[in-house]
Amino acid sequence: MGIENNTVSAKRQVAEYDVVRIIDKGASINVLFVGNSITRHAPQADIGWDYDWGMAASSEETDYVHVTVKLLEEKYGKINFCTACCGDWERNYWDDDLIERWRKARDFNADIIVIRIGENIWGQRHLFNEKPLYSHYDKMIKYFRSKENAKVIVTDLFWEDGGINKTVYKCVEENGYSLVKIGDIGEKDENKAIGKFWHSGVAIHPNDEGMRKIAERIADKILEK
Q1: What is the pLDDT of residues 75-129, one digit of tens each?
Q2: Which stretches of 121-210 are assigned E, i.e. beta strand?
Q3: Helices 133-144 and 162-175: crossing angle, nearest 10°?
Q4: Under 8 Å CB-to-CB from 184, ≥6 apart: which residues?
Q5: CA proximity to 130, closest of 100, 92, 76, 94
Q6: Is the pTM of this model over 0.70?
Q7: Strand, coil or helix: what is 123?
Q8: DSSP symbol at 156
Q9: Which residues, 6+ apart, have CB-to-CB distance to 101 below 8 Å?
Q10: Which of 27, 172, 184, 185 has the lowest tally of Cβ within 10 angstroms?
């Protein structure tokens, strides 16, 4: 099941006041995760999602953000981390002023930025000719990169979509970012929460195994020499 089966709306996946969440441990390294429901989704009763972490993970500790943080802390010790929930940006990617909604994440001054976003842009694909994606995607990443020397890690899409991934790959190549491919993880049902949730859109999100694999690839890329 692919991207067309992602029927979880990108609209207001978290409350307006809570689109940026910072976990400050008093550490010297700041890691920012820019994402959508795979990064974090607040409870939503009408789709059977009762939790407040990466959608379809069985616990906060097993979503990809928290697994990535754990893996990095094994190397660096404590790190501060921040999640920026940008589903509304995906729905309105051409509105470059909208990104100011996530200023707290920019002001977090991340040393490492993980861009794990893009699936919900698919719903706006009919606008690509009128409003080409590349320049807005590029501006979004550069907005969050408040430190010039911050390391930028970009993943492609969990549910494969070549039109959006072409933009992802071009942006990575032209800016010298690090690419993490996760589409092959999303191709396999064993990495999804199928059968765990009654709502099919929730169920095609990554389960604990899928989250772990995503986290390991991101952490491996960050820790590369």
Answers
A1: 999 999 999 999 999 999 999 999 999 999 999 999 999 999 999 999 898 999 9
A2: 151-155, 178-180
A3: 50
A4: none
A5: 94
A6: yes
A7: helix
A8: -
A9: 19, 88, 89
A10: 184
